[in-house]
Each structure stands twice: as structure tokens, then as C-alpha cells.
Amino acid sequence: MNVSLLIDFIKKESRDNSYKNILAMTLISGLSNALLLAVINYSTSKIVHGDFNYKFILIFILIFLIFIITKNRALKLTAVLVETIVFRVRERIVKYLMNTELLEFETLGRAEIYTRLTKDTNEISNSATSIANGVQAGVLVFFAIIYLGFINITAFVITIIMLGLAISNYFFSSNKIQKEIGEAVTLETVYFEKINEVTGGFKEIKIHQQKKFDLFLGRIQVIAKKLKDKKIITSSKMSFYFVFAQAFFYILLGTMVFVIPVLDQAVLTDVAKITATILFIIMPLGDAVGTFEVLNKATVAVNNLTNLEKRLKENTFGVLEDPELGGIFENFEKLKFNDLHFGYRDKSGKDQFSIGPINFEVKRGEIIFIIGGNGSGKSTLVKLLTGLYMPDAGEILVDEVDVIHENIQEYRELFSVIFSDFFLFSEMYGIKNLENSKVLKLLKQMQLSEKTGFKDGAFTNTNLSTGQRKRLAMISVILENKNVLVFDEWAADQDPEFRKYFYNELIYDFQKLGKTIIAITHDDHYFNKADKIYKMDYGTFREYKSDH
User: Fold this and answer.
1) pTM for the structure as a whole
2) DSSP state letters, 213-265
3) Which tens digits make up the pLDDT trace of 277-294?
4) What is the CATH number of the domain that holds 397?
5) What CATH code is carried by the domain that includes residue 12?
6) Which of 38, 153, 197, 316 has its CA 20 to 30 A from that of 359?
């Protein structure tokens, strides 16, 4: 069990060295607990010989109070430290995530990120009390064994040997099982991915019995069974190792009572003290050993979070703390795309689907239509043109200024996009000085004023049809007031009346405001509304001449 990874993680994240205070409280708590044992044994011996003294009660109460206060303090400080660490790690990972390149995000997958930020951080959070109790129990056992040495050296040596064997065996077993815990975590991530397919594609599986059958029996049930079996194996092994370790303790107790007196007659007078000491440490030993399982899970969680944070950090550009960008491209006159190429690759680096070369230019205020069949690469092109994907080759120029990593965010800020798989946020983020009256006017313009309202920076109802939700997204686009507006099949989900409004009025209203329009569309009846039309055909790109 690589506990050093967890210890280094806590030291690194404990910026104010509060872990030292926790260690101090834990040491005092464990020592005071051991002293309680010594006071009880000593007092019992005196009482048996008729030498009772009230000062024993006072000493007992004093040590007891120290134990209670320091243990409570240790638990409280541990909870504060661990929750603060979890907060910092979540905050950093989310910051890195929000600055990670889209391609890396898509490669990671939602389930991986969700599992790390929820389950793994919860494993660390839930370990706080167990770790504090386990460490305190370990300190108690340490001092209790030292106390045992003062009682009888033979009992002390045998205890050290047997406990050393038991703990070594448990650590050796724990090292072997850590890999299986990691495999179980991986299976859980895959399981969550499949559950996400159920929730995301619920309508589709409701109307397709075979799809439902394949997803449940062919995937979810198989993965769930593997996960169940892996967890049963892991838990069974951990239980066996735990019981085996506890068995050592009872063997130790039996040795003290039945074997040592035979080997050393001088021990007979101390058997009661030795037995009381061993009984006193059995439960704390169980707590200390039980902590190893928690440490195993917490260590796996720390390893997963560390790897995720490292991966995100390596693929992060820009800083979240800098919302006010320079706007160096705000007054552009022309966007030029020269010999752009982009391709997807699998995990082994093998080329998959690619697009290019892309050669065209867009002047400010133009209306550009891009057409093409399903799978032709239109959505990939949108991500490339808007800077969400960096080209593998070629260049993007804004008025002859090359778009590179250092200014990519300024370039992205030119665009407002409604993707085909758009996401509608719960609130109007990123829009300053938002006036309710303006939003209500836009709701009326989009014929949604009877469907939803606007209050406290959010729409009061988003449980609408896809076309209506796209109109809410259009309101956000209008309020964002960006220079280049990109619509990926926006009109496809609108009724004929609103589709006509989009092509005959709305895009021209945008044009009058100096906006540039890039629209992915299949609506050939409206091709005459565009200044230029381009066609994607299985990754190739060319200008299209319309007969309309």
C-alpha cells in the first residue's frame, strides 16, 4: 500500500502545516489513552492491596479530560483539513478543466471527469474520521506496548514479534489488493458512462426494444456484474486479511495467558496486568488495521485525481482569472483560413476522420452558408473555424494577424455559437448589466413570452421543445452581442413560420448591426439569402454555386 503517496499529498495540500497540529493532538490523545490504562492497572493493584487513594480518581479524571479534548480537537482539525484539501483540489481541477482544449475534454469523457470530481473526492472526504481514529489508535497501541515492556519484558518481546508478523502480512496483502481496487474504480467509470447513455438517450430506448435490450443486457448488466464480482473479491480479501490480523491478536492473548506463565514463572504475578493491557489494545488495533482499507481507497482516489489534474494541466491554455481580454480582434474586417487541416486520432495515434484543406475568407458583415450531408465534417469545421480545435496544419488570419495559442482566446471571443448539440445554461452567465425588460422583449420577439419568463438572471422555464429551447439560446446570442454568429442547423427544429422569420428577417437584422453570419443549413429554399455558400463533402471543402 503506497501510503507515502497519500501522506505527500496531504503535506503538499496543507499549506498552513495544520497537519502538524493534528499529529500533535493525535499523539497526546493516544498517549493519554495509554496512560488511562496505566492508571487503571496501577490503581487496581493498589486497591487489591487495600491502598486506595482519592488522588487516583483525580488523576484518572484529568487524563480522561485530556483524552476527550485532544481527540475531539484532532477529529475536528482533520475534518477541516481534509474538506479544505478536497475543496482546493476540486477548484483547481475545475479551473484546469474549463481551460482545457475541447479535444482533450472529448477524449477524457464526461464519466471520467464526473467520477473523479465526485466519487474520488468523496473517498478522500469520507476517509477523514477513519484516518484520524486509526492514527490515534496506532499511537495508543504504540504506548500501550511500551507500557507492556515495563510490566514484563518477555510479554513485550512476544507481542512485538506477533504484531510485527500480523501487520507485515496485512501490508503485504494490501499491496496486492490495491491494483484490484483501481480496476474496480475503472469499471465504475465505464458503468457511469453507460448510465449516462440511458439518461441521455431515454426517449430513443423507449421506442426501440432491441436497443434497450442490447444496452441493458449486452452492456450495462455485463459491466455491472463485472463490477459486482470485482468488489466482492476485493471486499472478501480485505475481510479475510482483517480477520486474519485480528486472529493474531487473540492468539497473542492466549499466548499471554496460557504459554508465557509456563515459560516464565515470574510472570504469574503480572498475568492480570498483561491480559488487561492486551484486551485494552485489541479494539484500537482493529481500528488501526481497519484504517488500512480506507487508506487503500483514499490512496487510489488521490492517484486518480493527481493523474487527472496533471493531464488537464498539460492541456490547459489561458487563465480562468482573466475574463477581461484585450479585444485585439474586435474591429476585424476579414477572417482568412489558409490550407487548414484537422484530423481525429485514436488512442494509439492512428489517423481517423479528417477534414481539409480548408481555404476561404469571410468579410465582416457577410452571410455564409455551409452545406453538406451527415458525416461530411460540418460540425468539425465549426469547431475548427471558431478556434475550439487547433488546426494540424494551415493558418487562421484575422486581418493578416496569425491566430496562435497566445491569442486563441481573443479569437474565440469573436464568436457566439449555437451548436447542433447545444447546451442551455440555467442562468445568463457572462452578460453584464442585464436588463429584465430587454430579455422580456426578446422573449416576445421569439414568441416565447407565454411559455417562460425571466427572473433573477434565469429563465423561469426551460422544459420546452428543442426548437423553443434553441430560441432561448438565440436570445443569449443576441445579448452576448458578439461579432461573428455561428448557427449549426439552428433552423432545422423550427416550425415553417419561424424558419421563414430566421432566413428573411433575423439574419438580415444581424447583418445590419455589422454581424457576420456563418450558418450550417440544409434549407436549399433559402440559399439565395447567403452571400457565399460552401459545401463539405466527406472532409473536403469547396465553394458551392446555387441555382436559387
Assistant:
1) 0.74
2) HIIIIIIIHHHHHHHHHHHHHHHHHHHHHHHHHHHHHHHHHHIIIIIHHHH-G
3) 888 777 787 777 777 778
4) 3.40.50.300
5) 1.20.1560.10
6) 316
